[in-house]
Specification:
420 residues, Carbamate kinase, eight-stranded mixed beta sheet, 12 helices, 35% helix
Amino acid sequence: MSTLVMKFGGTSVCDAQRIRQAATRIAEAKSNGHRVAVVVSAMGDATDNLIDLANKVSRQPVRRELDALMSTGEAVTAALTAMALEDQGLRACSMNAAQCGMRTDNGFGRARIEGIDADAIHRLISADITPVITGFQGISAAGDITTLGRGGSDTTAVAIAAALGVERDGGCCEIYTDVDGVHTADPRLVPNAPKLGTITYEEMLELAAMGAGVLHARAVVFGQRYGVPIHVRHSQRPEPGTMIQRETPHMESIAIIGCALKPDLGRVHLQGLPRTAGVQGAVFTAIAATGVLVDDIIQTEGAASVDLAFTVEHGDLPEVKVAVSAVLQQLGAGRIDLEVGLAKVSAVGTGMRSHAGVASRMFKVLGDAGIPIRNITTSEIRISCLVPKEHGEHALRLVHEAFGLELGERVSLQRQLGAH
């Protein structure tokens, strides 16, 4: 008997009808012999509505109280889902973060999971009672409610799956959402982008970090660390979706598996920094304290000074500017320039490790279209180009076509890297 952790996102439980449909899907899984635990998000726009309400009563809501407020959305969904399961003749029990043993640090709004005491969940499942667990939240050592930040419910689900050891009995973590799986590109931007049957953790991590919005990177990290297969599925359709799993030998037969676009980036350029040890540490320690993620770091050295340039999400620029300006004031040197209106297009594939020619094809197709490349970054399985924002979507479609990704997993290496 395999164990499934079934996670339903906000659009999948947005109203009473969708909650009943989710309960039917859970009942079907149990009737097929699976041991089931459920994780739910808040209904539809509930979290956004709670944040709006907080901003109406406070000019600057205290983070601890904001987390306490936001956690109520998932509590509502969990209780309603448990009711819907009981209505179908199944025993169910809603569980909040404290009841399911979801321990975190005290980083309100961006808490990190420190451990899960899954004994209570195991006891319910063993008694044939379906636990319905609140996603997105945890409990600090001080007993405070915390929230996990963006993608928090996905992260909860995969962490619960890891704690239950679903991989040991052939189970997985199923993420039910409003898309049918992972596509070779965002189908809203590239209409002919097909769904992938499988993708590796590494590839999904790169795509998620580069702008693919199907699954948050933190959830994939948990899956990779503990070997939890993650199945992304459409909540309203019965067919299989995309399985995120460890790499298998045939996966390297395709150089590029997908591409992604980050459409709203800004670049921070620090000029005239003193050429002394510790300058870089001071700058990026200040940024890290804000919780902002930095990408595309470039350093150039002159005879007496150092320049640093890096990109961040456009919405993070004001916070970064404040943090970095304080460092420059302490250093007594340097100036800051901000550039907006940038986007990043990326090509991703584990096969890139063993096949040459990916970079040249990508650069050529962008160059032939007259799209300027402002910066290039790479990893073992990714190539990214920073381009002006107005060219971003066109660049994504060009890269998708250049590697024949409209053929999905049927694309050949000859098509991807040979004459096109």
